[in-house]
Amino acid sequence: MSDSENEKDDERRRHPRTPLSLLVQFRFNTFEDFLADYSLNISPGGMFIRTDEPQEEGAIVYLQFSLKDGSRLIEGMGKVVRCIPPGEPNRISGMGIEFLNFDEESMALIEEICATRQAQTRPKN
Length: 125
What we know:
- This protein has a six-stranded antiparallel beta barrel.
- The chain has helices at about 5-10, 105-120, and strands spanning about 20, 25, 35-45, 45-50, 60-65, 75-85, 95-100.
- It has a single domain (about 5-120), classed as predicted glycosyltransferase like domains (Thrombin, subunit H).
- It has about 120 residues and is an alpha+beta fold.
């Protein structure tokens, strides 16, 4: 992806992305088994999941993930808003998920994760 494409994506986003590799379980149909892949990043508005089998834009997905210490399960509904199929040069395949229906406690925890990680990655003066 070129720098200008990255800048356009950044301008479109309402929330800054926080790099975070976390195992995410998800399913698109209540009768399916859960699939599991790792996230690339997260924000209070959504997350990007690395996968070689991204679903089409508009698909509704049920998500579950927990903190690395396993202390709290975060779960809710999301919508696929971006798909990157495998094989695109210089891009990681996967899907961007917009959070739709998470409880207040889960959203507060996601915001806390983002704020903590961003504070850790900011250059110190």
